[in-house]
């Protein structure tokens, strides 16, 4: 059994022409750092898959302050308009290719984070606050997932 943690980036600056370049706000940095500390105590993620967008990269960097990753990769499959089926298939492929990693953290954006939860655990499509993390248990033998919970910075 593996654990998949799907995280929305921390609070970001308002929309602008270059969406990919948006930075985290001061609150967003604090959300990411708080969730990183919570993740280190509760889930100990050891693999990271992250969107190339600046705010997701900044979130991952803040989370990494309290976590060590055996595997880390940036993928354009996790951009906001990405296809959740492609992202889920890629994640499952990485899980199979890296059996030494037991807890996978995915850092991305709305709406793909919600769609990705639904893709992995059909019928479950939570709405993510900034910095929130959905917890999914994944059986790599059957390739079946079970949505467990969603945790926001205000609740940990």
Largest sheet: 6 strands, mixed
What average pLDDT do the residues reach?
97
Order of helices and strands: EHEHEHEHEE
**Proportion of residues in extended strands:** 15-25%
CATH architecture identity: 3-Layer(aba) Sandwich
Question: Could you please describe the fold and organization of this structure?
Answer:
- There is one protein chain.
- The protein is of the alpha/beta class and 156 residues long.
- The relative contact order is 0.23.
- Strand 5 (133-139) and strand 6 (144-151) form a beta hairpin.
- It has one domain (2-151): Phosphoglycerate mutase-like (Rossmann fold, 3-Layer(aba) Sandwich), CATH 3.40.50.1240.
- Helix 3 crosses helix 4 (112-120).
- It has four helices and six strands.
- Helices cover 33% and strands 23% of the residues.
- It has helices at 26-42, 54-64, 84-97, 112-120; strands spanning 2-8, 47-50, 71-74, 103-108, 133-139, 144-151.
- It has a six-stranded mixed sheet with strand order 3-2-4-1-5-6.
Summarize the structure.
The protein has 156 residues and is α/β, with parallel strands linked by helices. The chain is built from four helices and six strands.
């Amino acid at each position: 059994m593996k654990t998949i943690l799907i995280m929305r980036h921390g609070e970001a600056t308002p929309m602008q022409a270059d969406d990919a370049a948006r930075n985290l706000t001061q609150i967003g940095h604090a959300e990411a750092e708080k969730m990183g500390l919570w993740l280190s105590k509760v889930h100990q993620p050891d693999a990271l898959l992250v969107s190339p967008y600046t705010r997701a990269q900044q979130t991952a960097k803040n989370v990494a302050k309290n976590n060590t990753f055996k595997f880390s990769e940036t993928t354009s499959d996790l951009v906001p308009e990405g296809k959740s089926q492609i992202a889920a298939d890629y994640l499952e492929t990485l899980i199979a290719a890296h059996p030494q990693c037991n807890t996978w953290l995915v850092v991305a954006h709305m709406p793909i984070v919600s769609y990705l939860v639904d893709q992995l655990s059909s019928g479950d499509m939570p709405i993510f606050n900034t910095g929130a993390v959905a917890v999914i248990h994944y059986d790599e033998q059957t390739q079946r997932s079970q949505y467990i919970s969603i945790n926001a910075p205000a609740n940990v």
